[in-house]
Amino acid sequence: MCCGQLETRFHDTPIVVLQREPSRMLSLGASIVLYRTRVDELRRLVSQLLEQGATRVYLVDNSPLTFDTFSAWEPPERVVIIRTGRNLGYGAGHNLAIRDSVLRHRYHLVCNPDIDLGPDVLPRLHSALEERPDVGLCMPRIVGRDGALQYACKRAPSPIDYLARVVSPAGWGARRRFRFEMRDCSYDGEMEVECLSGCFMFFRSAVLSRLSGFDERFFLYFEDFDLARRARRLARNLYYPFSHVTHGYARAHAHSWRLTATFVRSAVRYFNKWGWWPNDRA
User: Fold this and answer.
1) Ramachandran class of 32: left when φ > 0, alpha when ψ lies in -120 to 50, beta otherwise
2) What is the pTM of this model?
3) β-pairing, 200-204 with 107-111?
4) Which of 102, 108, 230, 268 is least enclosed by beta carbons within 10 angstroms?
């Protein structure tokens, strides 16, 4: 099957899409947003997604056109490459894929490039949502490269959660983080969750379509909390610990003044939208 090329524009930015049309309608699309990421870092994840049943994988490249992400790489069948030519942000990048995917597929996966899939995680999540039509968003157990659990389930955040980490990281801040990350709950069983990490979000397309994807006012940070809370207004958010993925988690903003400023701007936008004090609007 030959590879076609489609060129369109997004805010006066050319977008080049290399795509192969599948032979049938698919049940699962998956999107990964890239920024200055080499294709060699993605080969394993793309192969895993395709092998486990994601029959269309969207690679949204927010790198500048001078950065050769896909050098000498022939994308596998069922892979769609979207080149934006500039950094649109995490949510806006995923939205380019989401707008197409929700029209084609029953489910859509938002996935980070630093993910490694555990055995049969996609079929298991697919089956879990097929059996539970009231669930709109699902996330498996998330572990680090060292195998340690990552506390990716969150209660709706408050500004106090972040202030406490700065003022008293080992005392008050630690207690706030314990509660914020739901460590008082068992990560060995299913949970309904207000906020789920954006590193791996398995959506029912009908819910994601009604939400119109991410709020693009968030360039980076807090867009996952916002989307999860909006999703919870329409259906259940489920933590499903019976399958897992490995996540190479890194707090990049802790090492960059530019990303720290981005984090603060997103936090202000988030709390302006959802409220600066604890409330029951989740």
Assistant:
1) beta
2) 0.88
3) antiparallel
4) 268
Instruction: Give the dihedral sign, CA 214/60/139/125.
Output: positive
Task: Give me the amino acid identity at 233.
Answer: R
List C-alpha distances in Å: 122 to 4, 77, 116.
28, 19, 12
Structure tokens at 132: 């539970």
Q: Can you give the pLDDT at residue 250?
A: 59
CA 173 centroid distance within chain: 26
Give, as one character, the DSSP assignment of residue 190.
-
Distance CA 208, CA 226 (A): 13
**Rounded Cα–Cα distance for residues 110 and 281 (Å):** 24
Question: What are the structural domains, with CATH classification, of the chain?
Answer: 4-274 (3.90.550.10)
Q: pLDDT tens digits for 95-145?
A: 999 999 999 999 999 999 999 999 999 999 999 999 999 999 999 999 999
The 3-state secondary structure of 52-108 reads CCCCEEEEEEEEECCCCCCCCCCCCCCEEEEEEECCCCHHHHHHHHHHHHHHHCCEE
Token output for 205: 């397309």
Tell me if 93 sits within 8 A of 12, measured CB to CB: no
Give the C-alpha separation, 236 to 69, whole Å: 37
